Structure formats: structure tokens, C-alpha cells
Sequence to fold (218 residues):
Amino acid sequence: MIDKYMEVIIKSLGGVDGIMMDPNAPVPQANEVLLATFSGQFNQLGLIVLVISFMGMIASEKNSGVQGFIFTRPVSNMQYIVSKLLGNWFISMVCISVGSIVSYCYSIYLFDYYPLINFLLFLVFYSLWILFVISIAVLLSTFISSSIFIGVTTIMVAMVFMLLGGINETLALFLPSGALILAESQLQNTHSNFLLMIAPIIYIVISLYAAKVIIKKI
Fold:
């Protein structure tokens, strides 16, 4: 957006006298704008906001005694955990999808067309990454009482995996951040290695099973 309207912004602030604008500067493509939006906003500030919204989903119920009441009903540990995971994942993806659709629409309107199927595939693979992040928060909530500590730890774990996954694709095959790399590849017009989906699914299953075991012991 800034690149597109830089000249207009400068003129509104007093003109372009003394400022050299490169007439040969490349015009950003729609996929580049979308990738910058998701990498710089959704996956940083947006991720923090999401984690803050669901960081106390289990800890608050445990601290208030609601969790104990729930388990007096015919609800298994796994049913309780999965309901928390999927409920928060659904709400998160609704919010992300709305923001993504708006970003997609203004990108193709202001810049150029980008295939809708690639955009939808991005959302599918990105939703797997969000599911993993929520599963970490669910796991931490089973044995940590402080919502703030759960949120900070979840964000730190997600950031570490993102940094490690960015080293190379081979390493990403064994990390949950492989889903994020696979999602971004849909916006980069690069080769998509669908094996990157395997590790996130395994990590999610392990997190759920560990959460079930910890809740049972508690």
C-alpha cells in the first residue's frame, strides 16, 4: 500500500521537491503484497492477539472450579480437550478468514489478479499452523495456572519453530512450522512440498495426548 501511494503521500505532506522517485521501481505484485501482509501482520501482531484471546481457555476454568464441575458430567478428558482446541481454532479461523479475504480483495483491486485457488490453499495450510499453536496453548493450560505465562510461552514456542523452519526446508519437514512454509509457498509461486503437512499433524496429536494424560493425573 505504501509503495503504491508513496507519491500521493509525499505530495500531501508538502510536495516532492528535492525528493527523487525512482521511475523504474518495480510495481509490487498481488502475491507479494499478500505475503507481506500475512508475514508482517497476521503472523506477528495477529498471532499475538490470537494467543492472548485463548491463552486462558483451560486455566481460567481450572482456577474457578468450572473444570471440576464439567468432569462431573459424562465428558471424557479427550472430549474436553478437543472441544477447546476446535472451538478456539474455529473462532480464530473465522477472524483470520475475514481479514484474509479483505486483504485479497484490495490486493487484486489495487495491483493485479492472483489465482483464488492459491489463496484458498494458503488459508487451508495456514489453518493447520494455527491449529498447532492452539494445541500448544491447550497443553500448557493443563499444568500452568497463569494465563499470562501460558500466552508468553506459546508465543515464544511458535516464534522458535518459525525461526528454525526458516533455516531450510529439510529441517522444516520435522517441524510444525512446515505448515506455515507450505502456506507461504502458495503465495510465492514456488514448489509445494506437501510432506510438510505431516510434522504439524504429528505434533498436534502428541500435544493432545500429552494434555489428556496430564489432566487425568491432575
Remarks:
- The mean pLDDT is 83.
